[in-house]
Design a protein that fits this description.
The complex is a heterodimer.
Chain A (H helix, E strand, L loop, with lengths): L3 E5 L3 H12 L3 E5 L14 E2 L4 E2 H11 L4 E3 L4 E7 L2 E6 L4 E4 L1 E4 L3 E3 L16 E3 H10 L10 E8 L15 H15 L4 E6 L9 H10 L4 E4 L2 E6 L5 E7 L4 E7 L1 E6 L1 E3 L4 H7 L26 E3 L9 H20 L2
Parallel strand pairs in A: 1-2, 1-9, 2-5, 9-20, 11-18, 12-13, 12-18, 13-14
Antiparallel strand pairs in A: 3-4, 6-7, 7-8, 10-19, 15-16, 16-17
Chain B lengths: L10 H25 L2 H12 L1 H16 L2 H6 L1 H27 L10 H10 L4 H4 L4 H26 L14 H23 L2 H17 L7 H13 L11 H8 L5 H5 L13 H9 L3 H10 L5 H5 L6 H10 L25 E4 L2 H4 L2 H13 L4 E3 L10 H5 L3 H18 L3 E4 L2 H10 L6 E4 H10 L11 E4 L6 H4 L3 H10 L1 E3 L22 H15 L6 E4 L2 H8 L5 E4 H6 L5
Parallel strand pairs in B: 1-2, 1-3, 3-4, 5-6, 5-7, 7-8
Helix pairs in contact in B: 1-10, 3-11, 5-8, 8-9, 9-10, 11-12, 12-14, 14-15, 15-17, 23-25
The structure holds flavin-adenine dinucleotide and iron/sulfur cluster.
């Protein structure tokens, strides 16, 4: 039983699914768009809630898939299906036959420019959480110049009807607090503020992280949305927000503002998804069969989904889904 | 004196119908005029004797009611159809009456006094039965009769297959409307047959058809024929609808012929399901007294004004929808006590006063561009709402809350007047509309930044480069259709790059879908409108979409395949220092 299983996307979900399928005796094939495996996790420095190095996790996963047939810098350009299964054409013109397809194309980061009132791309010192993560990895960012006051804005591009994303992006609250602690580690004298709607500390150890943020790092968490950002004569950022606990409007000058950008559906897969007949849900992510028992299956027999392509997910969520999708595919192949 | 009358029983249906419709119209006329607010009524009487409006009345009565100039311009086939029927019918009546007076003794019989008056009533309608006319008249009468019939033929074709005459969607009618249409279509063919064959049955059919037509007229869309004349007079008097069902609005409701031209024009119609929200149906609901539906449509409308632009009768449906909204007390609890404590930081000077407005505050790129432009042009300016300002009042006006809006308008007026400025520059077309229409800022010129930048470039104060980017310009509804600001932005863009055309431009530009006007369009429905509008703009494959409204900017940015910019940003990037 050496059936080919095509996995589109080599992030955490794709890699973990491949590892498990290989152990089950199937032949996973990963098609990855970028030049390396690892997906977004490979861009992070340390992971919440335990500040564990992301590199460590990614390296372990890479080691597990070293024997898996992998195409890098490659996309699926066409896919057909007949009684024998799926027939995919790749951007390097190679053709792959497979019995089942797993979509593991993950997410994209909300384009912060779309929320113009936060000034990203307009004012120099507004940056995104992804860029801050890079700063932690590389120790360098021209915007971070011994800052005295730093702010984090939650829910950028999430829970916001005005940008048409009404869902919660799930991990950005925890990420914001993690990054708040980390920036305090680098600049202990800086004042750090986070502006949240409500703090969604959903996992084990996450609430502890919140307490630690306040007790050990003296980060000030303000409940209220930032409404506008502008720049003063010295290039400092002036933000306006409302402290909804005190019921007072608030104005503050900051050196750096970090936008916690939401996860959005990765649209680069739309054309293939359409050919396969997999629809999107109301949040724009891929539609799985149902939220309880069918989270890895789709309306199309033989087409599976895993990871952040169906909704915002944390890394443990993603790994869990990847393992579960492997089981689903295994059963599907055996019952055929 | 001979009191004999010329008569045949088949004239009776016509006489009955005519008496009915005349009575109905006279009563209706009195009702409309009585319902007008006192000031409007005065305006109306005055307009009738003011030479300027009187001339406009005559021009439009002929141009619109008889020749249908506006329909001709948009669609010549439909133009011909309407004017053939209307003008042909009018001429038949006129020539009929001329004949009546030239042929003094009718059939050699001297008919006078009451008898003559009674005979005059129907004689021209059935004259062929009673008299043999002179060849010239005979020719003219036949000519116009055939003209009407040719118009009716087109109407029949349009009914069977509307696309042949270039109409995608037509209004769906109920039984009464279909029935009267059938009567109208058959009146003239019956008359022709009756005149040519003199078969008694056809004279009866002709007369009965007229009876049906005239008795049903007040209850169907054909009421637009007599009402439109009154509407034209009221419109020229400069009246605005104050109640969605009374007075001026009533005249408009009955003037709407349900032609359905607004159905294709309305941006909501991209989704067939929503074409029922268009003005043609709104007027129908009002007429039928269906308040709930009328209210729903009034609240769904985006107020983009395109239906008003294409309407051959110039029905002011947007204004009527606004008065419909005002008729319902929305539960909005607003507290404007803060207005009392606000004062201006602006010093007293005649510098240009820039007011960004709330939407522009959320698009800081526009503000930054405006500051750079004004500085580069060496303009001295003050920024009225740099640290926050008061809303122009439009959202409150859109929900029919005039008093609340007025509170803000008064405060803003006070602040602006205090500044001593002579020129107010705005970045938001929504503000522009309100400042132009609702504010009394005598002695202060109000400009949108498109006009202001155009002036700066033309006067040589602002020097700009021309690059070879292809721009397409989107006309924001509140700047274009509302105020005809079409040329200034285009001239500015031609100075900084290449201007290419959208598929629908200027008056016909399609709303971005983000309008504040609608209360209940879903995001999905708005997205469909936006996508349609973007496709229209992308017609000539421009490199960038340029608009002049912060709301259009935000709306398009989500759906556009190319960069979307405000005109100020484009100009800013081309300034020569
Ligand atoms: C700022 C930030 C910080 C985070 N920090 C943490 C944390 O500390 N702890 C935690 O548990 N979670 C964290 N997360 C969540 C974590 O990143 C996700 O759970 C995880 O990345 C999801 O993995 P995935 O494989 O589903 O998607 P992705 O990581 O997005 O991987 C998708 C892969 O598919 C590839 N791909 C996409 N489209 C195509 C295509 N058309 N063809 C071929 N390949 C394609 C991509 O290149 C990518 O390699 C964070 C998220 C964000 C945004
Ligand atoms: S996780 Fe927190 S920051 Fe992210 S969208 Fe949800 S509530 Fe907002």
């Amino acid at each position: 039983m050496k059936e080919n299983i095509l996995i589109i996307g080599g992030g955490a979900a794709g890699m973990e699914a491949a590892t498990q399928l290989q152990k089950m005796g199937l032949t996973p094939i990963i098609v990855e768009k970028s030049e390396q495996l690892g997906g977004h996790v490979a861009q992070w420095d340390r992971l919440f809630p335990a500040f564990h190095p992301a590199k460590d996790v990614v390296e372990k996963m890479l080691n597990q898939v070293k024997d898996v047939k992998t195409y890098l810098n490659t996309e699926v350009t066409d896919i057909q299906r007949d009684d024998n299964g799926f027939h995919a054409t790749l951007s390097n013109n190679e053709k792959i036959d497979a019995k089942a397809v797993i979509l593991a194309t993950g997410f994209d980061i909300f384009k912060a420019e779309r929320k113009q009132e936060y000034g990203y791309g307009i004012y120099n010192n507004v940056m995104t959480s992804v860029e801050l993560e890079k700063f932690f990895r590389t120790g360098h960012d021209a915007r971070i110049n011994n800052p005295k006051k730093i702010g984090f804005v939650h829910c950028v591009g999430a829970r916001d009807v005005k940008v048409c994303n009404t869902y919660c992006s799930k991990v950005c609250c925890t990420t914001a607090l993690k990054q708040a602690c980390e920036i305090k580690e680098v600049f202990p004298d800086a004042e750090v503020y986070t502006f949240y709607m409500d703090l969604r500390m959903f996992g084990p150890g996450y609430e502890d992280l919140y307490l630690k943020t306040q007790k050990d790092f003296d980060v000030k968490c303000v409940r209220g949305r930032v409404c506008e950002v502008s720049e003063d004569m010295d290039g400092k950022l002036v933000i306006k927000a409302e402290d909804t606990l005190f019921g007072k409007p608030l104005k503050m000058t900051l050196d750096v503002l970090v936008l916690m950008c939401a996860m959005e559906k990765n649209k680069s897969i739309d054309a293939i998804q359409q050919k396969l007949g997999v629809a999107n849900n109301t949040d724009g992510f891929m539609q799985n069969q149902d939220m309880y028992l069918g989270m890895n299956t789709t309306a199309q027999d033989g087409v599976f989904v895993a990871g952040a392509c169906t909704a915002p997910k944390s890394l443990p969520d993603t790994i869990g889904e990847a393992r579960s999708v492997a089981t689903q595919v295994f059963n599907y192949i055996n019952n055929k | 004196m001979n009191s004999q009358i010329i008569f045949h029983p088949f004239v009776l249906p016509f006489v009955l119908g005519m008496a009915f419709v005349l009575t109905y119209c006279v009563v209706g006329l009195i009702r409309v005029i009585a319902q007008l607010p006192k000031d409007d009524r005065k305006k109306f009487w005055r307009s009738l004797v003011t030479p300027k409006t009187a001339w406009a009345n005559i021009r439009d009565l002929f141009g619109d009611c008889l020749f249908h100039v506006k329909i001709w311009k948009r669609n010549p086939v439909l133009g011909y159809m309407h004017s053939a029927i209307a003008f042909g019918w009018f001429m038949i009546i006129v020539i009929g009456h001329i004949m009546l007076f030239t042929l003094k003794p009718l059939q050699g019989v001297e008919v006078e006094g009451m008898a003559r008056t009674f005979t005059n009533f129907y004689y021209p309608i059935f004259y062929k039965f009673f008299a043999t006319e002179t060849p010239v008249f005979a020719f003219l009468m036949d000519f116009f009769l055939l003209m009407i019939i040719s118009g009716i033929l087109i109407a029949v074709v349009k009914k069977i297959h509307s696309k042949i005459v270039g109409v995608k969607r037509v209004t769906k009618f109920g039984f009464a409307d279909n029935m009267i249409r059938f009567a109208l279509w058959t009146i003239f063919p019956f008359r022709l047959i009756a005149e040519k064959t003199n078969i008694m049955a056809f004279w009866w059919l002709y007369s009965i058809d007229l009876l049906i037509f005239m008795c049903m007229l007040p209850f169907t869309r054909y009421m637009h024929i007599p009402t439109e004349a009154l509407f034209i007079l009221l419109r020229h008097a400069g009246i605005k609808p104050s109640d969605p069902r009374k007075g001026y609005a009533l005249a408009q409701i009955y003037s709407c012929p349900s032609c359905g031209l607004c159905i294709d024009a309305c941006p909501m119609s991209v989704n067939d399901k929503n074409s029922g929200n268009t003005s043609a149906y709104f007027m129908k609901k009002l007429r039928n007294g269906d308040k709930e539906e009328a209210q729903r449509i009034a609240e769904t409308c985006m107020q983009c004004g395109k239906c008003v632009e294409v309407c051959p009768v110039s029905i002011e449906s947007c204004d009527i929808k606004m008065s419909q909204r005002a008729a319902v007390p929305y539960e909005i609890h607003s507290d404007h006590s803060y207005l009392d404590v606000i004062s201006t930081e602006a010093e007293k000077s005649s510098k240009v006063l820039y007011f960004a407005g709330c939407m522009t505050q959320l698009t800081p790129k526009i503000m930054r561009a405006m500051k750079k432009i004004m500085t580069a042009a060496g303009e001295e300016y003050q920024f009225l709402d740099e640290n926050g300002g008061i809303c122009c009042g439009r959202p409150m006006l859109l929900s029919g809350k005039t008093a609340e809006a007025q509170a803000m308008i008064e405060k803003n007026t006070e602040l602006i007047k205090q500044s001593g400025t002579t020129k107010l520059v705005l970045s938001c077309p929504i503000c522009y509309k309100v400042f132009k229409e609702e504010y009394h800022l005598e002695g202060i010129e109000i400009q949108h930044h498109t006009q202001y930048i155009d002036e700066l470039v033309k006067s040589g104060k602002l020097k700009v480069n021309k690059n070879d980017v292809n721009y397409v310009y989107h006309d924001p509804c509140e700047l274009g259709r509302a105020f005809g600001v079409y040329d200034e932005p285009r001239e500015v863009l031609e100075n900084v790059g290449n201007l290419c055309k959208a598929k629908s431009e200027k008056e016909l530009s399609i709303c971005c879908g983000g309008s504040l006007g609608s209360f209940n369009l879903t995001q999905k429905e708005r997205d469909e409108i936006t996508e349609n509008s973007v496709n229209d703009l992308m017609f000539n494959n421009p490199d960038e979409i340029v608009t002049a409204c912060p709301l259009c900017l935000k709306t398009f940015a989500r759906k556009s395949p190319v960069k979307v910019k405000d005109i100020a940003e484009v100009v800013e990037s081309q300034i020569i220092n």
